[in-house]
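User: Good morning. I'm curious how flavin-adenine dinucleotide would be positioned relative to this chain. Could you predict the structure with it bound?
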Amino acid sequence: MSMKNVLIIGGGQAGATVAQDLRKRGYEGDITLIGEEAQLPYRRPPLSKAYLAGEASIESLQVMKAPILEKNRIDLRTDSRVSSIRPAEHQVELADGQVLSYDKLVLCTGGRARPLPVAGADADNVFELRSIKDVDAIRAECTEGRHLVIIGGGFIGLEVAAVARKLGLNVTVLEGLPRVLARVTAPQISTFFEQVHREAGVQIRTDASVSGLVGSPRVSHVLLRDGEQIPADLVIVGIGLIANTELAANAGLAVDNGIVVNEFGQTSDPDIYAAGDCSNLPSAFYGRRVRLESVNNAMEQARCVAAALIGNPQPYDPVPWFWSDQYDLKLQMVGLSAGYDTCVLRGDPATRSFSLFYLRDGEIIAADAVSQPKDFMAAKKLVAARVRAEAATLADPSIPLTDLLPA
Ligand code: FAD
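Assistant: Good morning! Here's the predicted structure, ligand included:
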């Protein structure tokens, strides 16, 4: 069957990229992009950074503006939610009852904020941070001198803490684990960022388990399991993401920590693909399946799906990378560090510019670079090439990292 009609569910980074890339690759048929948000497709990273700080406009976040959509003949339907997929009929049903047909369907449904499982989490001044709408509501509450309690010491929580200090709020970060960023970095990086935040005036509380939110309709205190109550004018919850897989699961597609796809982004139904945060992909590089939450992955996997759709499949096998901006610092990470046996520090954290390399059996498997873009660029190549290195060599800033690359 020739492909006349591609329907994409989810108007985020991945969905917009699939649509645009199909045109770049010469696809001439219909493209319909269905997004439940009111906005044109936009980038989320600035939400917890420049947009929250009031330093970026909505327009600067948009990945596709109206003229590009028009030029590319992409039929974007905003405020439109797909409620079910009928794979046998090659149809989807929208929440308003409309039924649309497809030749090929692409799921780019991303994820939603993990809800805080305690009473009071639905109070008026408790927020999650995933969308422009969320940040607009948060900003309206960010008055100088107010007490902000952030639940979750991950990237979003810490980025928000940095911006909120700049806006003059009193900030407390509550992290349930013994250190911030515990799931993604080594203790050295956690210690560094905890110190940076404390110096900026943020109260960081680790091993802090939240048992309730006190006050209605507005929360006035966050209750910890040990009985302590922390005053709060507003609360932001940043405790992770749940992949939006329900549409896929209800349609009978394979789902396992994300929508299961092959190396071309194809799901268990050959006419349905998936890309971005919602997908679980096979990594030949890591020898296991992974679900990645990053802009780079959303875009690259989306391009791979577009290529497969036009009949030019190219396997996708990423070495993931990610970044986080906090204060004047840029943290850039490459690779997945899980399973490392050795950490090597390069440079001095006291200078606020250093790198940390993760090794397993002598192989560099990941690196975190703090305001060290050169190390990061080199580390991307070292990790991808599976370079083995001596700890002493990596630790010596006088030896260029590029010297370690294979000729
Ligand atoms: P999303 O961008 O989540 O888009 C999915 C879209 O699908 C959403 O608009 C959703 O409303 C829509 N949708 C879902 N279900 C339906 C349905 N049934 N019908 C219609 N529409 C539907 N990544 C980085 O690499 N670096 C960063 O610094 C960084 N910072 C971030 C900061 C914040 C605050 C957030 C929230 C994320 C950040 N990320 C960052 C992660 C990055 O934004 C995501 O990995 C990326 O947006 C994933 O793109 P996606 O298209 O898969 O999903």
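The radius of gyration is 22 Å. The pocket of flavin-adenine dinucleotide is lined by residues 9-15, 34-37, 44-45, 47-48, 81-82, 108-111, 129-130, 156, 244, 247, 276-278, 293-296, 298, 322-324 (CB under 6 Å).
Let me know if you'd like a different ligand tried.
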